[in-house]
Amino acid sequence: MPKFEKHIFICTNQRPPDNPRGSCNASGKAELHAAFKASLTHHGIKGTVVRANKSGCLEQCEHGPTVVIYPEAVWYGGVTPADVDEIVESHIIGNRPIERLIIPDSCLNAATCPHKPRKQL
Ligand code: FES
Ligand SMILES: [Zn+2]
């Protein structure tokens, strides 16, 4: 078996609509994961080379819907099904990440992120 060349993790965590953190899969239908699967199939990319996996919460809820692609460890936020073909064509096939969707380092696991709720002291 060849090693996977890329692994796409798509957050499909669902929280109740009144949860202040929101969630990446508010509808519970995991449309984003389905869109990645469909796009990979459409582009003839076999699941033995690139995997699109459902993931639990990736702890980037405030930037979601969240997708992370390894081995590059490129984090995307605010991803919609309309972005998926572009990600597959540019990033997965062309190795050119989509700058406008990347969660900036200043937000990723950083105390400086202005989007995350502050801890109550
Ligand atoms: S719910 Fe998707 S990152 Fe937390
Ligand atoms: Zn942020």
Detail the topology: elements first, then pairings:
Elements: E1 6-11, H1 31-42, E2 50-55, E3 67-70, E4 74-76, H2 84-93
Parallel strand pairs: 1-2
Antiparallel strand pairs: 1-3, 3-4
Bound molecules: FE2/S2 (inorganic) cluster (FES) and zinc ion.
Zinc ion binds next to loops.
How would you describe the overall organization of this protein?
With 121 residues, the protein is α+β, with helices and mostly antiparallel strands. The protein has a single domain, classed as Glutaredoxin (3-Layer(aba) Sandwich). It is 18% helix and 16% strand. It has two helices and four strands, in the order βαβββα. It has helices at 31-42, 84-93; strands at 6-11, 50-55, 67-70, 74-76. The chain has a four-stranded mixed sheet with strand order 2-1-3-4, covered by helices on one side. β3 and β4 (74-76) form a beta hairpin. The longest helix is centred in the first third of the chain and has 12 residues, at 31-42. The protein is globular and about 45 Å long. The relative contact order is 0.20. The model has no long low-confidence stretch (mean pLDDT 92). The structure holds FE2/S2 (inorganic) cluster and zinc ion. Zinc ion (ZN) is lined by residues 62-63, 107, 113-115.
